[in-house]
Input
Amino acid sequence: MTASSSPAPRIDYFALGGTIASIRGDEVGAVPTLTAQDIVDSVDGLTDVADVHAHQFQLTPSPEITIADLIRLRDAIAASVAEGSVGAVITQGTDTIEETAFILDLLRPGTTPIVVSGAMRNPSLPGTDGPANLLSAVQVAASPQAVGTGVTVCLNDEIHAARFVTKSHTSSASTFVSPSLGPIGWVSEGRPVVALRPAGQHHIDLAPGTVIPPVALIRMGLGDDGRILGTLADLGYRGVVIEAFGGGHLPVAALPAVAELAAAMPVVLASRTGAGEVLSHTYRFRGSEIELLNMGLIRAGALDGLKARLLLTLCLAAGQDDDTTAKTFASVGTTTGPTRM
Ligand code: GLU
Output
């Protein structure tokens, strides 16, 4: 930095573990080990981009992250913003990034950039992608272009909107894709470009200590009569997302179990295809989307099953009644909600 240049912006970095922090010890297999500061120190040029404040938030594989952790993380980010931070970067295991980023996108109250990243190749492997991903994520978080985009996911020099991103491959460095629209931006030669801005961002406020109700996600397959649906109430589930065929269709044999379930708790109709909207008025055969929606199922819109499950969980946790929950799904699922820019 020269004497005349402005000071590097403050970025707060929250490390949660995952592959980017995982190294091999004496035994085969990497485990989360490296600290936030270890990871920062491994990235050449990072301090030229930002004044990075590193926080060891937790050090776990990503399936261990809970919604309570994410409420705590939201509040830690808010505290850093109150101290002058202009953006937050989170690294964690990639296995659940599509879920944690979406939850944070719903929970966060402001427009400060929050960028989630990680690595597919751990630091013990040749060609580890963690340092490049962290550098890009910090570049995005420090960019005014990222203000108001909602939470983004940045790996492999691509920027994805939390609402649409999904992990598509078990091991490829290009695993993160947004099947319905593609990335909203990219990083080229260290310069972030946000080419598209997601419309209709939505906020659900949850206080620390909020009870998180269990919601089941059931994917239906050919010949399934849905008998598992009849067990869910007794297991204590408070809501269910059904990943149905195509545009939202189920076998006739499953309809009695679906009707009984919908009378007992909110049931969301999602598609197992992974992209596109659940239909609303295209088919009228038995088990079609028209029949299922007439039975009271809530349409997931363009949200996939994983994200629909999380949205229903947050709606229930926030105490929303069925009508409000349906409105929330219409808003988030079809991107027509109030915009916070
Ligand atoms: N595949 C994961 C990762 O990329 C490791 C497991 C996890 O999600 O923590 O970090």
